[in-house]
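Render this sequence as a predicted structure.
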Amino acid sequence: MSQPQHAPDGDLDLVIKAVGPSTEGGRLPLAELARLASGLQASLERIALSLSGGTARPGRRPREIVDAVRLDIVGFQTGSAILHVERTGQLGLDDLLGRTLDALEEGILSLLRDPSTLPAHFTSPVINGIRDLTGGISPDGITRIEFARGGTTRFTVDAALQSAIRSIGATPVQQMATVVGRLHMGDFSPAALRCRVDTYAGSVLCDFGPDLRDAVLDAMDEMVMAEGIGEIDPNGASIHLLHLTGLGRLASARPESLDTLARQQEVQPLRSVDELGGEQIGDLEDFMTAIRSARG
C-alpha cells in the first residue's frame, strides 16, 4: 500500500523576520507579537475553511480546521526579531496546512499586483484579518515582516501591502445569521419593506421580500426568531443589516390578555374598592402607642 505524500517538514515551518526601528537589539514589542500571531493564525484558519468548502459563520471555527493549521512559536533569534514557527502535532493534516500557506502566499502576491481583484479564498474575513496584520507597519516601528519557508522568503508584509489592503476598503462580511428579539417598526411600502428587531445587544435593521410581508405584519410587537443573510460590520461584532429569509414567532413570548392571565392565576377582579382595606386590625392602636413611647 502506498503511503500518503506530505510536504517536507521544512516547507511547512515558517521563519518570520520583523525589521524596523522597534526591533533594534533583537527585540519585539509584546503588542506587535500579539498582533502578528493572532492575525496570522486567524488568516490561516479562514483560508483553510474556504479551502475545505466551508463558509464563515458566527462563533468559533470548526475544531478540525483550527487543529489543521495551528502553529506554535518554537524559537526566537536575535539580530532582527526572528521567530521560528512550526507544527507540533496533527501531522496527518499537513496537506491542508501546506495548501493554506500556499494560498496565503499567492493571495498576498496577487494583492500587491492588483488589489482591485480579490484572490481565490480571500473572503472578506480574510481581508479584514490581513488588514489587522498590516496594522503595525510604520516608519518608526516595524517597517516590514518577511515570511520564509524552506529557506526562501515567500512574501513580505510592508507598507506596499498595507496600502493595497486599504484601497480595498472595509467591506461588510455577509454570512448567515440568526437574531432573537422583539419585532418593531415595520415599513410595508412596496419600495422599502423593512423592520427592526430589538435584541438584548441592540437593534438590528432588517429588510425582506414581499413573500414575508404577511409574516412580518402578523408578528409585529412580538418576540421573534429572525434568520437571514447578515451584513456583519468589519469589526465582526455587530450586524449592519439582516436580509430576512425566515421569521418565526416565539410561542412562549406571546403577550396574553388580562382576562387570560387572571384565569391562569385563578384570581378575580375586585367587586368593590372597599375590599382593598382588608380585615380590621384590632390591636393597631396598641401597636402605634408602643411605637410612640419607644421614640420618647
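Summary. The beta strands are 14-19, 72-77, 81-86, 144-149, 152-158, 173-189, 192-199, 202-207, 223-232, 239-249. The mean pLDDT is 79.
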